[in-house]
Backbone:
């Protein structure tokens, strides 16, 4: 080995379990050896090593059973964004197999694990790019649809609209396939919020008239329509609808809801905007012609 090759191997290397690994050595390992090394790297909190090893592991694509074991074991350790690199291989490997539902649930838990550690980018990759692949392009079963709905709910809370639309794409999830009317309403609401589709939001409201989030979403949608209708006869009608739905949302909030503070703050902000910041003639509350 030449001098410069030795320098490259020295500086371009990582230490795991007391051994030095160059990229070349890592890439030469078998899938099983990579899986074992990956856990050691995560346990040691070695960021460079986990990136190198999980990148190689994603390319090696071990059987989905082995990836499931690896992900479960990794979640018992401090979160590392590199673990998300195997999300895609796991989803694709399990698609259409008996492991499909199990893999989907594990990917969702992996995303939550990353989120709890503040790894938003890794979690979004798992939710928006990897998890949808577990369906293999086929319609999701009722159980799998529930997992996708849970992921879409997380995406909605973080305003990842594109992720909601991918997860609940009609070719993947049919809202009518849910046996629980509340779940069907939530799916319609999430799609409606992400796409601004008033028809879907109204359908969600018919399924669950007391859902404050649906009323809030409708209030927000009508607020946007009011802004676009300034100076036209439709303005007051849209503004009135927005205020009515925002008020309905406020009065229907469940104080036991874990996100009640966030939801009430969002409702108050939107309500104030419609009352004071989005009315004609500098804050007039409408009805100037009466």
Residues:
């Amino acid at each position: 080995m030449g001098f410069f090759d030795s320098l490259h191997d020295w500086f371009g290397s990582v230490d795991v379990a007391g051994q030095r690994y160059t990229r070349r050595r890592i890439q030469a390992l078998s899938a099983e050896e990579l899986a074992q090394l990956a856990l050691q790297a995560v346990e040691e909190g070695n960021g460079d090593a986990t990136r190198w090893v999980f990148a190689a592991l994603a390319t090696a694509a071990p059987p989905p059973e082995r990836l499931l074991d690896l992900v479960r074991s990794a979640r018992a350790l401090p979160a590392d964004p590199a673990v998300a690199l195997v999300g895609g291989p796991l989803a694709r490997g399990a698609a259409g197999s008996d492991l499909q539902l199990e893999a989907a649930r594990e990917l969702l838990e992996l995303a939550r694990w990353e989120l709890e550690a503040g790894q938003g980018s890794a979690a979004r990759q798992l939710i928006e790019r990897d998890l949808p692949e577990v369906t293999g392009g086929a319609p999701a079963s009722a159980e799998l649809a529930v997992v996708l709905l849970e992921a879409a709910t997380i995406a909605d809370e973080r305003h990842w609209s594109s992720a909601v639309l991918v997860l609940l794409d009609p070719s993947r999830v049919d809202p009518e396939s849910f046996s629980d009317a509340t779940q069907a309403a939530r799916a319609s609401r999430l799609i409606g919020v992400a796409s601004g589709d008033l028809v879907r939001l109204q359908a969600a409201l018919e399924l669950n008239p007391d859902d404050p989030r649906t009323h809030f979403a409708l209030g927000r949608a009508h607020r946007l329509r009011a802004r676009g209708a300034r100076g036209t006869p439709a303005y007051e009608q849209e503004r009135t609808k927005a205020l009515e739905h925002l008020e309905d949302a406020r009065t229907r909030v469940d104080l036991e809801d874990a996100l009640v503070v966030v939801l009430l703050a969002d409702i108050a902000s939107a309500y104030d905007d419609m009352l004071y910041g989005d009315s004609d003639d500098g804050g007039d509350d409408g009805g100037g012609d009466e």
Notes: Residues 234-252 form the longest helix (19 residues). Confidence is low (pLDDT under 50) at residues 3-10, 279-290. The two ends are 91 Å apart (CA to CA).
